[in-house]
Every structure is written in structure tokens, then in C-alpha cells.
Amino acid sequence: MIASEARSLFLKNFSQKLHRAYPGVILGRFLFLVCVLGGFAFIVGAVGLGSLFMGLIAAAVAVSIPFMRVNSKVHKRLRVIDEQLPEALDFLSRILRAGHSLTTGFQMASDELPDPLASEFRTCYDQHSLGTPIENAMREMADRVGTSDFAFFVTAVLIQRQTGGDLAEVLNNIGGMIRARLRLQQHVKAITAQGRMVGTILLIMPVFFFIVLYLLNPEYASVLLKEKEGFIVLCVAVGLQVMGMIAIKRIVAVRM
Prior knowledge:
By secondary structure, this protein is an all-alpha fold. Among the domains are: 107 residues, Receptor-associated Protein (Up-down Bundle); 65 residues. The chain is 87% helix and 0% strand. It is built from twelve helices and no strands. Helix 4 packs across helix 5.
């Protein structure tokens, strides 16, 4: 029961990521293509290299690439939205000070701001124009975007609509706070760049040297694949590499 709920939660979360990265792609079709790619890579690895282990490695790499691509595109989209958000809040603040309504500000933002943030404001405005209350449309917009800063902006607007106050000043304050946090993130990224680079090199070097050794002397390197003792050593080495990757990531990661 717990495993089924965890699997369902994973599929739901990944479906949201897939929709953010590729809005027109269906989850079932994506998983089917991943399975086909993994099976093809396994056949090529097992037949071409003559080893089931290498076939499994090839299949694992082939299956992981589409998921990594989706995660990479989602992270890039979220990063772009976080960078665009302060300017968007300043734009909305100026629109409100000029006497326009919030919904009009969304319409003007969808025309003036760049994507992907402009498309989100456009969708929110279109939903409101078709009869959806602006509060519900903004909540759905926050769910689609999926960033904490944008959710904070939506929450602040919804609270202000209930309690009253100067929304333009609220948006200015939120924009300034986001700018300060982005500057701090960039500073942390700069001072941890060397550690991340060293960690990447240390993780890539063993794999690179094993591939080179296999190409230069397949008989010598195949001991790790065909012999029982060598296979155990290889599995231990892979496990240590994974542990090292996790440790390095935790060392260089700074929680804001």
C-alpha cells in the first residue's frame, strides 16, 4: 500500500515536471519511449560488448538521459522565471500606480514581458476572462510555475485582496527581497564553484579511465566484468562512487 502510494506520488510529481518541460507530451508516451530506448541500448551494449553487465549499464544510462533532460529543462525554466520575477513585479507595481487593475496588469504583462513568465500571466488572464475567479486562476498559476518565490507573490496578493492595503508597495517589497536572495545565491555559487568542479572531475575520472582501459586492453579490463571477484569489486566501486557523489553534493550545497 505504501509502495503504491509512493509510486503514484512519484508519477504525479514527474507528470507535473514533464508538463512544465514539454507541455504537449503525455506521460504514458514518454515512459513508452524511455522503455524502447532502454531496451535498444541493452541489446546494443550486450551484443556489441559481449557482456550483460555492460548492456545493463548502457540501458541504465539510456533510461536516465530522458529523465535528466526533463529535470534539466525544468530547472532551467524555473531559474529563468526566478530571474524574470523581480522585473515582472516592478512592472505590475507601475501598472497599479498608473490606476489600472491587477487583471489589466496581467494582460499587459503577458504582452510586454518575455516568456516563460508572460505565457503564465496570459493563461491566468484568459482563465479569468472566461469566468474563473482571479483568486482561483492565480492559485492554478502558482501550481503551474512551481517556485517558492512565485507562490509567495501569489499568497501576498491573495492576502492583500482580503485585508486591503497598497498592493504596489507590497509588490515592490517582494521584488527587492527576491533580488537580494538571487544576489546571495550567485555569491554562494561563485565561492563553491571550485568544490563543485573538483567533485565533477573526481567522479568522471574513474569512468573515463575504465573506458580507455577497456578500449586499449579489453581482455585485461574484462576481468572486472566476467570474473566473479572482479564483478564484486566493480559493484563496490560503483557504490563508493555514488556515495562520494552524494557526499560532495552535500558538502558544496548551501541551503538558503
